[in-house]
Amino acid sequence: MARTVLVTGGNRGIGLAIAQAFAKQGDRVAVTHRGGGVPGAGGAEPGFGAGGAGQHGSLFAVRADVTDAASIDAAFTAVEAELGPVEVLVANAGMTADTLLLRMTEEQFTDVVDTNLTGAFRVAKRASGKMLRAKWGRMIFISSVVGLAGGAGQVNYAASKAGLVGVARSITRELGSRNITANVVAPGFIDTDMTAGLSDDRKAEIRKSIPAGRMASPDEVAGVVTWLASDSAGYVSGAVIPVDGGLGMGH
Ligand code: NDP
């Protein structure tokens, strides 16, 4: 059964791969971007070619900044008008601002938490009303292996990603009886812009620490996310599913 899906930060990287995977299986898919547009998408705004959005595997692009509740509300309203209420929410938008604890400013900490954790809270809250009314919903939060294992230079990022586990598990307790699931996907090292800046030496070091011996493609995360939204995963909730080639075993 085709569903309406919203992926935040769906204009590139893991978010775009997730959106394309849902579109490929016939769902109606909206993606948020912050003004740069989305490859191959139709959308609500001039310049994004309004016709055909959500059909024939295309994506419906809406502008939203997850740090701004009003822009999230406007994006959901546009998606609801075009594709119907959001049934599957993928809170994917995220950022890093890595530096060692001693040097990390309070702003670097709060900016990352505001985007990665509070941003996910904002979209989950906005999605929950319609999911409750429909008595069906799927929320998937994109965390990180770093959320549970920690990462040097990533106190802000790890805190934000660990927080998503508490969010998903609390939502599971609150909304689980209404056929709404909330799960966390915890990727390891995925080949996107976020990891493109790592030096070759650092990448080689990372590969050595991963049992699978390689980084993953965004599509390998997308497969787990589409499964979590499927009917086969209806009894999976409050779970943290690693997609990390074995890097975080035991967490
Ligand atoms: P990218 O840096 O390639 O993409 C990040 C996405 O988030 C972009 O679409 C970006 O939009 C969006 N975004 C950032 N800040 C905001 C904001 N305030 N409001 C709306 N959108 C925003 O990252 P990845 O694709 O690699 O990462 C996607 C998710 O996966 C993130 O949550 C990340 O933490 C997580 N992750 C990534 C891993 C990796 O190895 N790559 C590993 C583990 C987790 P814009 O294009 O406008 O900047």
UniProtKB/TrEMBL annotation:
One of its GO terms (molecular function) is 3-oxoacyl-[acyl-carrier-protein] reductase (NADPH) activity. The keyword Transcription does not apply. InterPro entries: KR_dom, NAD(P)-bd_dom_sf, SDR, SDR_fam. Pfam families: adh_short_C2. Its EC number is 1.1.1.100. The keyword Oxidoreductase applies. Keywords: Oxidoreductase. Residues 3-193 form the Ketoreductase domain. SMART domains: PKS_KR (SM00822). PANTHER family: 3-OXOACYL-(ACYL-CARRIER-PROTEIN) REDUCTASE, 3-OXOACYL-[ACYL-CARRIER-PROTEIN] REDUCTASE FABG. Belongs to the short-chain dehydrogenases/reductases (SDR) family. This is 3-oxoacyl-ACP reductase FabG. It comes from Micromonospora zamorensis.
